[in-house]
Every structure is written in structure tokens, then in C-alpha cells.
Design the sequence.
């Protein structure tokens, strides 16, 4: 059986990250021939980055062949943006698509080169694969045919994202001089307000009043987004001068591109993960944090409802909101309550037993339900039903 993947590689963008981990998992299937076609990045400033994976895996990704037009294939999966809903020459075609703001925005539709998202989907036989029910609702709201929108979550590689032995963790924390601190972490900052960085900074400014030995690690993606500038702008809007002065020495910022093993170390040395987002398509760092044994604080009502559990995650109360833009479109988002965010950050600091429970429950939950192997099993069952895979029939863990 043959599958063609059209997508991005060698880039720390969520679409490329998902594509690369899925490709590595597909390459393990002896019944499957995998082919890849690199698609143009959406920004000319983006450049391929090496070193994200160990050398053997990077070589495996680089050596995936390209299928010539004369060779038939069974399925096509597209993992890039703007979305492409056109039919392909294969038996089944699927496009990975996310909606963060509850709709397919006009800018995305323009990038697709179509007048109507609904018409484009109706005029093709393409299946839309989206990682969360929040995202699926946004696609349907924009006119996608519900019967051809399928939720397949993202996953983690448990060989990378897992808790560290306590002695290794302590050594890393000592090197960073955070061994006597309580450390919050947030990963993946972009260049818009969707991830709630202003709310996080505001809450952190309150927390350090009462817990001065607290640090906040922020991991940006300067290679593809102006993350550092986003933090500065958000801070100016959300904080008073006094609050800014209070937190600036307690924030540790990483903007450089890290390998996935290096990124995992940030999760492994932190004490809690916090994500007061407003709009996300999935929010993969929350899942990665849980896999590393971190207790998680994230917004209730969004995509993380699909894959978090009260045994390791605390949900920030939120309200479903809409915003009418100047261009005439309505954006949907969940607005986390500021006071409840502060309360939950305090709870995480104070509740040692909850953190200990989360350190075991999170990795167990992710390992049982959200690995890339399980993701690829679902993708292949959808795209190539005749490909019978032999795999254990695990029952979900009920925590």
C-alpha cells in the first residue's frame, strides 16, 4: 500500500511537527510505502532547520522518496497551509486543517485561492482531518460538510516526552539555578493574542507577591514568529510598571530553536505547565507537558477538553465569547477568568499531593491514549481501510 504525504518538514511549526512525527511512525509499518512531497513554506523568511531530531531519524525523514506522477498510490494526506481541498489522483484524499478562532478566517480562505470554503469542500471529495472537536465545530461553522470532517488528535513520542528520574531532574535544575524555585512553564508563543500571554503575565505578577521564589519559563519560536516582541507588547498592555519590575527578573525566556529532546528537558525541569489560552486548534504543549508528568493548568471549554483529565489538569473557568472584526467576520474564543487563573496557580504551588498524583497520572493517560502510534493507526484506518494493521487492542485507562 502506498501513501503520499504533501507537507512541511524541518521546521518548528505545529503542522510540520505533526507531519514529521507521523512520518517517522509510518516508516515503521512494513505494509506501507511512504512518499513525501515538500510544499512551500508560507513565509519566505522561514528556512529549513536541522537538528530537531536525532541524526538517524533526521536521515530517515530526509530519505523518504518522492513518488513520480506515473506511479499510482492509495491515499494522499496534506499537512501544510493554506489548506488544499482539491481532489487528488489517489483513491482517498485528506487535508489536515485547524481552526483556532472558531471559523476558517478570511485570510485563510484568501490564501487557499477560493471564494468560499463551503463551496470548495462541497466540490471535492476531500476528507478534512482536524485534531479537536473545537476545531471541528469551527470548520462546520464555516460550511464544511460534517460527514467529511474527522477528529484525529495529535500525539507525543513517549521516548522523548516522559518524566526524568529525580536525580537527573535535580542536576538539570541546579545547572539552571532554579533548584530552590517553583517553576511555571509555557511553550510555543506566537505573534497574536490567542495564547493569553498577557493574562499569564498578569497572573504571575500576582503570584510572585506571595511566592517570591517563583519563576516563569517562556519558550518562544523566534525562527518563525516574533515571540519575544509578542511578550513585550503583551506585558506593556497587561502590566503596570510596578508589576513589570516585579516579574522581569523572574522570567526565563528561550527563543532559540531547540531539538525535541532539548525541548522535553524544559518540561522535565518545570513544576507546572500553565496555558490560559483564548483560541487554539489543539495545544500540543499541554499534552507534551502531561506526558512529562507536569500538572497542567489550561482553559476550560476549548480543545484541551478533549485530552486532559482532572487527575493531572486543572481547568480555568471561561466564557465563550465572540468578537466582530472590522473585516466583518465573527471570531469565537474562550475567555479564561483572571482571578481563577491566579487561584489555580496558587493551588498548584500549595497542593504537593496533587502534583505527585499528576506526575504519574499524566504520563499513564498519554501513553495509553495519545501516542503517535495511536494517531497513525487512526489515520491509516481512515485513509487506507484495506491496510490491516496488527496491533494490541488496548482499552482506555479510566483514571
Sequence:
Amino acid at each position: 500500500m502506498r501513501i503520499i504525504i504533501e507537507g512541511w518538514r524541518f521546521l518548528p511549526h505545529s503542522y510540520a511537527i505533526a507531519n514529521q512525527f507521523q512520518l517517522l511512525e509510518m516508516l515503521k509499518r512494513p505494509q506501507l510505502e511512504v512518499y513525501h512531497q515538500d510544499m512551500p513554506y508560507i513565509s519566505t523568511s522561514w528556512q529549513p532547520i536541522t537538528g530537531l531530531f536525532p541524526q538517524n531519524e533526521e536521515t530517515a525523514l530526509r530519505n523518504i522518496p518522492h513518488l513520480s506522477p506515473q506511479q499510482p498510490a492509495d491515499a494522499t494526506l496534506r499537512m501544510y497551509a493554506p489548506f488544499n481541498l482539491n481532489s487528488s489522483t489517489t483513491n482517498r484524499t485528506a487535508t489536515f486543517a485547524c481552526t483556532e478562532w472558531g471559523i476558517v478566517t478570511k485570510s485563510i480562505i484568501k490564501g487557499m485561492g477560493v471564494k468560499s470554503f463551503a463551496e470548495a469542500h462541497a466540490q471535492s471529495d476531500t476528507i478534512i482531518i482536524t485534531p479537536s472537536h473545537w476545531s471541528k465545530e469551527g470548520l462546520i461553522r464555516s460550511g464544511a460538510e460534517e460527514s467529511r470532517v474527522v477528529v484525529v488528535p495529535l500525539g507525543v513520542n513517549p521516548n522523548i516526552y516522559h518524566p526524568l528520574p529525580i536525580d537527573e531532574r535535580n542536576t538539570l535544575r541546579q545547572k539552571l539555578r532554579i533548584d530552590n524555585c517553583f517553576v511555571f512553564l509555557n511553550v510555543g508563543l506566537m505573534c497574536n493574542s490567542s495564547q493569553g500571554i498577557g493574562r499569564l503575565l498578569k497572573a504571575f505578577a500576582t503570584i510572585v507577591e506571595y511566592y517570591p521564589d517563583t519563576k516563569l519559563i517562556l519558550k518562544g519560536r523566534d525562527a518563525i514568529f516574533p515571540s519575544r516582541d509578542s511578550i513585550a507588547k503583551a506585558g506593556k498592555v497587561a502590566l503596570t510598571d510596578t508589576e513589570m519590575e516585579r516579574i522581569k527578573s523572574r522570567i526565563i525566556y528561550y527563543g532559540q530553536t531547540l531539538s525535541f529532546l532539548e525541548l522535553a528537558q524544559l518540561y522535565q525541569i518545570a513544576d507546572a505547565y500553565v496555558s490560559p489560552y483564548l483560541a487554539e486548534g489543539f495545544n500540543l504543549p499541554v499534552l507534551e507537558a502531561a506526558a512529562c508528568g507536569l500538572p497542567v493548568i489550561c482553559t476550560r471549554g476549548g480543545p484541551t477538553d478533549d485530552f486532559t483529565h482532572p487527575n493531572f489538569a486543572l481547568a480555568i473557568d471561561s466564557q465563550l465569547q465572540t468578537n466582530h472584526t472590522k473585516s466583518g467576520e465573527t471570531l469565537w474564543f474562550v475567555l479564561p477568568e483572571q482571578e481563577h487563573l491566579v487561584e489555580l496557580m496558587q493551588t498548584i504551588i500549595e497542593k504537593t499531593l496533587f502534583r505527585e498524583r499528576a506526575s504519574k497520572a499524566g504520563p499513564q493517560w498519554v501513553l495509553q491514549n495519545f501516542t503517535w502510534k495511536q494517531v497513525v493507526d487512526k489515520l491509516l484506518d481512515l485513509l487506507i481501510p484495506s491496510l490491516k494493521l496488527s496491533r494490541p487492542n488496548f482499552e482506555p485507562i479510566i483514571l
